[in-house]
Amino acid sequence: TWLFFSEIYGGTNTYISEVLEQRRGIQVERLHLPPGQERYDMEAVVATLDRVQPQLLYFEPVSNPLLVVADGNALLQAAKARGIRVIVDNTFATPYLWRPLQQGADLVVHSVTKYLAGHGNITAGAVCGNDADLRKAARAYRKTVGHIVSPDDAYRLGTQLSTFNLRVATQCQNAWKLAQCLASHSKVENVRYPGLDSHPTHQEAVTLFGENGFGAMITFELRGGRHAVETFLRHVQHHVKFVTTLGDPVSILIHVPTVFTSERFPYPGMIRFSVGFEPYETLEQAVLTALEAIA
């Protein structure tokens, strides 16, 4: 049995259902967050590990789009104590905030398209590992199925990685400032940013990320629901892009119920905001102008 956290990338969930379960016959269990809950109960997680006794545990330390932070170090410790192999998708946290391989993860995967490349000009992924046999198997599979980055993209990635720390540090700083700005605005509610004391998993974020920051993603809701969202988008579109990616130089947003499902996230005013590394004053002014346009 393989155990997956439910709060993971939608494409991964599709792969689990359509490939791992349907085609390969792998027994899969999912660890769900109860409705309305935005914090993992570690006692319940450990109890699930003991009940399921999985061969593999797969999780993301920061969920999408609610930004629930898992106690990644505690998860790794609990899994390794039970002989469970662990794969971590560290795309949202990035190595700038957390390095799960140093904590004993067997494999770490990244959508390189996002923060590692950081410019919206490369489509790539990465698999990194401590386990030599798993690395060898991953390399053989990649060679067979042809998932190999082009030379041009590899060259660009090598160049762009040289600014990774500078880029992500600035994005985290911008996000921290913008989250505070949004939290104090009368037309905004339920600002979800792990750096805010009000976030349900703020303490987990402090424990996991230390002093490096709290990431560059913010999820918030506009008072007034769908109508407020339409007004906000109309006025912010000249500065902020509307695309489903993240980690680009400029800020990006999506309307959560449109991109995900309204059944899963029934919040008509919810926006997920990927903060860029543009000058903060420019970003704040664009956001405030759009907010003031809401009646």
UniProtKB/TrEMBL annotation:
Pfam families: Cys_Met_Meta_PP. The keyword Cell inner membrane does not apply. GO terms for biological process: cysteine biosynthetic process via cystathionine; transsulfuration. InterPro entries: Cys/Met-Metab_PyrdxlP-dep_enz, PyrdxlP-dep_Trfase, PyrdxlP-dep_Trfase_major, PyrdxlP-dep_Trfase_small. It comes from the Bacteria. Keywords: Pyridoxal phosphate. GO terms for cellular component: cytoplasm. PANTHER family: CYSTATHIONINE GAMMA-LYASE, TRANS-SULFURATION ENZYME FAMILY MEMBER. Belongs to the trans-sulfuration enzymes family. This is Methionine gamma-lyase. The lineage of its organism: Bacteria, candidate division KSB3.
